[in-house]
Fold this sequence. Notes:
By secondary structure, the chain is an alpha/beta fold. The chain has four helices and six strands. The protein has helices spanning 10-23, 44-52, 79-85, 100-112; strands at 2-6, 30-35, 57-62, 73-74, 94-98, 120-124. The longest helix has 14 residues, at 10-23. The protein is globular, with a radius of gyration of 14 Å.
Amino acid sequence: LLFVAGGTGIAPLRAMIDHALLRHPQVPLALLYSARRSDEFAFIDEFREHERSGRLELSQTVTRDESATWQGRRGRIDRAEFERMLPRPTTTLCFVCGPPQMVVETVVALSALGVPASAIRTEQWGK
């Protein structure tokens, strides 16, 4: 399972991740999580703990944080990051939630990597 969250789009995905961890502990889980600034990552301590325990692969990026304190990835989630986190595109179920442009760009990227349309589930909101 691959989860892709933008900003507060993490809220519904968190519940899905928790469910998958509880009900399907053998299924590999990956989370690509993008926020404007590093202080906007909700539930990040939980996700890092799941990562430390080997239950979740986590990738974070910030899109508008210029502070020197953030040492992680910057910018939008790019094709290389999707490829890294999606080793089996034809058999991975993907859940995407976030701002409309992020959701559209993610669907395009996942489709280009070979994820079937039926394996991409989305939710988005507008302004």
